[in-house]
Structures are given as C-alpha cells and as structure tokens.
Amino acid sequence: MRSVKLGGHVVGADERPFVIAEMSGNHNGSLDRALAIVDAVAESGAQAVKLQTYRPDTITIDADGPAFRISSGHDLWGGERLWSLYERAHTPWEWHEPIFNRARSHGLVPFSSPFDPTAVDLLESLDAPIYKIASSELVDLPLIRLAAATGKPLIISTGMGTVAEIAAAVGAAREAGCTELVVLACTASYPAPAGDSNLRRIPVLADLFDVVVGLSDHTPGLGAALASVALGARVIEKHVTLDREDGGVDSSFSLNPAELAALVVESERACAALGGVRIGPTGAEREGLRFRRSLFVVGDVRAGDVVSAANVRSIRPAGGLAPDAFATVEGRSFRVDVPRGTPLTWDLI
Q1: Distance spanning both ends of the chain, measured CA to CA
Q2: Using CA atoms, how far apart are residues 92 and 2, in angstroms rounded to an integer?
Q3: Distance of CA 254 to CAs 149, 190, 216, Å?
Q4: Using one digit for the tens of pLDDT, what is the confidence trace for 181-235?
Q5: Could you tell me the pTM of the whole model?
Q6: In CA terms, which of 92, 142, 188, 225 is 20 to 30 Å from 274?
C-alpha cells in the first residue's frame, strides 16, 4: 500500500484523509487575524495549516503592462497588477515564526509553499516539516530539487500541468532525494468551476507515478473534495477564512470554520464508507436480520385447520418459512394446535 508520513501523520489508502487548511492571503494583512485563523483551524479538527512564503519581489517585479496584469475578465482580481496583488496577499516573513508556534501549540502541522530559494531558507530555519510546490511552480524544477533536497516530504500540486510536466516534476523530486511524495490533482483557477475538476484523473495520477494522491480544491463548498475521497484522494487542501464577507483575497472560494469542520468529519466518513468489496450482511446489520419478513401464524388454529391467507401471512420478524413458501404450504393442514404469533415451520403442517 502507498503511504507517506506528513508531520507525524501516516497518510495512505487505509488512513483518514489529511486535511490541509490553506490560509493564503485571507489574513487580510493582520497578524492577529492570521493567528485567529490558526485557532479556528485547530478547532475544526484539520491536521495542518499552510502558508505561502514569498514577497512581491521574490515572485515578480514591480512592472506594468499586459504581461504583469491579471486579465480584466478575472472573477476576483481582474485588471490588478501582479505586484499589487502579491503585496496585498503575501504573509510577511516575520509572521511565520509566531504562526508556526501557534499552530504547533495546538498540535497542528504548520508548513508552507516556498516560491524561491530564500523562502526555503526561511522555512528550514523554522524546521518546516513538509514542503508544498504550488501549481504555477510545477515547471520550476530547480525549486523542486531544492525543496526535495531538504529530505522533507514534498506535496506537488499539478494545476495546468501536462503528464510530461508532472512526470518531470516528480522525477526532479525523486532524483533530489525525495522519498515521501504526494501529488495533488488541481484546477488552478480561482474560483474553479466544479465541472473542470476532472476528479477521475486522481487514480490515474496514483498509478502513473506510484504516489499518494489528493486534491487541491478551489471550487466553492465541499462537493468536489468529498467526491475525491471516493477516487482515492487522501490529502485534501482547501482555502480557509474566518468569514467570506470580510473580503480576503481568496475569501469567495474559501471555507469558513464551520465548513472546514464539516469537511473533516464528512471526508473521514466518506473514507470509512468505501469499505471493501464484500457483498452480504455486515455485523451492524445483525439486528436487522431478525426483522426480515417470514411466514407467521396470525390467528389461533386447531389441528386439522387448513393453511390460508386468513391464518398465515408474511410479516416481520424473521423466524418462519420464507415468504415465497406460502404457495407451497397454502391448502395444507395444521397437524397441531398453533397459537397466534408462532413462526410457521415445516413441523407444524
């Protein structure tokens, strides 16, 4: 069975889903709000909280022009300059340590997506237990090799990626020494239409690359994430905010704390519901077997009376002959007196 260890949690086919709450820029520029998000994640039962580690100058340059602007028709950030968006959304580096400390105090696994070598250096100084490669960085093989060389588990998100690009990223990670690897299906649009999720690729990714698989989900709500569990996802990443009405950069497709708690419970329930391929009664159905229908004597009868629909019927509980046996016993005679409420058995007729 494929399995990996993420921050002390074993993650694999026979384990409950590992739920990652992505803070992104939903701290809205406030460390207090960031810490409150960590507290809410801990209360939800999720196992991990994730940041994004970059500064505007490590991810782009302060420039204008079409190449450096989000397309005007974008649902959330239309027309915005990359520099301005990243300035608004980034998590200041000096916040990382208090956020990591708060997460660890709750027993959460804190980690991040680095976007350049200086981010890896910062996260190594904080002993980050996992690294996540964002979808847009899937093609940044030097960054993947650097993160993999730390010896930490690596989670690679594959939004926009072709099979060849994913194979190159997985190969780079393994060649650099990564032995614990997770590959996430992802649709890198914000928000993502549910119809673009293509969840059936999840088992394909697992088999192609022999990895634990999961879903980085940007669709609204829980539907796609829960459906992914049935297809083998054992790592689920969703953005989280305290309140979608507060206007965080990703708030429109983020879960609020109550929804995150529901995802934790329902994803675990979905995983348990998969069970095995056995067909037949389960242990939990043992009591129900007692109340299947069977043939019972429903009126007091005397020896010699004829079996008829008036004195024998198919009712609950079990214990008598099968209901289909009525056609065989109808018209036969009772050989003994039988009180009402007695299961009909062959020795009575």
Answers
A1: 57
A2: 36
A3: 32, 10, 12
A4: 999 999 998 899 999 999 999 999 999 999 999 999 999 999 999 999 999 999 9
A5: 0.90
A6: 188
